[in-house]
Design a protein that fits this description.
Blueprint: H1 4-15, H2 21-30, H3 43-46, H4 58-69, H5 85-98, E1 115-120, E2 125-128, E3 134-137, E4 141-146, E5 155-166, E6 175-179, E7 184-187, E8 191-196, E9 200-207, E10 210-214, E11 217-221, E12 225-230, E13 235-240, H6 243-246, E14 253-260, H7 261-272, E15 276-278, H8 281-284, E16 287-293, H9 297-308, E17 310-315, E18 318-323
Parallel strand pairs: 5-6, 15-18
Antiparallel strand pairs: 1-4, 2-3, 3-5, 4-5, 5-8, 6-7, 7-10, 8-9, 9-12, 10-11, 12-13, 14-16, 17-18
Helix pairs in contact: 1-2
Keywords: Membrane, Transmembrane, Transmembrane helix
Protein name: FecR family protein
Pfam families: FecR, FecR_C
Length: about 325
């Protein structure tokens, strides 16, 4: 005979999608026993876990319905506040919704209300996840982590923006990073950089090995390689890259590789929340390769002016870039 505590623990395990079929059968049999009625939680405690999209197999539905109709629910004295009708039928409803599909209950179906969101709104931030994984988020980036992280058989997170991951090794629980563009990165324990936006995403591997999946395509990366996926073209490609360049943001640097000056000043303006204008058309077509500091505007503009032989002046709250005048 099971204790109420054992029934409660088994039910919570079921809600988390971790029960075997044999354990589900035990829950179905317990449902018929009046003595266990107080072992089950209230409906409002289980409601967040029930997906409206879940569909039962006919066999599971019949078995649970039979268990429900065979259970007699006696009237309860008003003074007994431990049990309310909502509790018993909530259990039946939740089993009805979840029994045949518990193995499909992935973190992708978990409402945002039971996720932890890590944000780096105004500056770069470093977070440590419950498993020991360290994540550095760039300014304007965010990471969503399920409250089931570390409990399920896989460790899943969702990123928007740029992040550097130093993943704690756990061979039994792969670490998966999901991106907005539809590219997913699967690792066991390694270091890599992810940039994830709506139209494209890429991952650059520093150490270890990762498996990248997107649009039915799969790549395995070695250190020094980048996988780039375009959601518009639904195409993924791999190439060798300079990891120092892609990790520059982590070291408070903006990295440029043969970028047009107009694109360079646009990125600097967004980084420092300032207005920069190029006063000469020919100058705007010049290219820049190198690194610009992300935490010192004066040094950033001075680096730019010396590299491109131009002047930068602050006029009416706007930085104006002009070619150096020859004497």
């Amino acid at each position: 005979m099971m204790t109420n505590q054992e029934v409660t623990a088994l039910y919570i395990k079921f809600i988390h999608g971790q029960c075997t079929q044999a354990e589900i059968d035990i829950l179905l049999s317990v449902l018929k026993e009046e003595q266990y009625r107080d072992a089950f939680p209230e409906y409002d405690q289980i409601a967040p876990f029930i997906s409206k999209k879940d569909v039962l197999t006919a066999d599971a539905s019949d078995r649970i319905f039979a268990a429900i109709v065979e259970t007699e629910i006696p009237a309860q004295p008003v003074a007994d506040s431990r049990f309310r009708p909502g509790r018993w039928w909530a259990v039946a409803a939740s089993l009805l919704m979840l029994s045949g599909i518990y193995y499909l209950f992935t973190i992708q179906q978990i409402p945002k209300s039971i996720k932890t969101v890590y944000r780096a709104a105004d500056e770069k931030k470093i977070y440590q996840l419950p498993d020991g994984t360290a994540v550095t988020l760039d300014k304007g980036s965010e990471l969503e982590v399920s409250n089931h992280f570390g409990i399920d058989s896989i460790r899943e997170v969702w990123i928007k923006g740029d992040g550097y991951f130093n993943v704690a090794h756990n061979k039994k629980k792969p670490f998966i990073v999901h991106t907005l563009a539809g590219m997913n990165v699967k690792v066991l324990g390694t270091e890599f950089n992810v940039s994830a936006w709506k139209d494209k995403a890429y991952v650059v591997l520093n150490k270890g090995s990762v498996e990248v999946n997107a649009a039915d395509q799969q790549l395995r990366l070695q250190p020094g390689e980048r996988a780039l996926f375009s959601s518009l073209e639904q195409r993924m490609e791999k190439k060798s890259v300079d990891t120092v360049f892609y990790n520059a943001w982590k070291n408070n640097l903006l990295a440029f590789d043969n970028d047009l000056l107009k694109d360079v000043v646009g990125k600097i303006g967004r980084q420092y929340s300032c207005s920069i204008e190029i006063a000469d058309t020919n100058l705007s077509r010049m290219t820049f390769t190198g690194y610009i500091p992300r935490n010192d505007l004066n040094l950033a503009l001075n680096t730019l002016s010396k590299s491109l032989n131009c002047t930068v002046e602050l006029i009416d709250g706007k930085y104006i870039i002009e070619p150096n005048q020859l004497n």
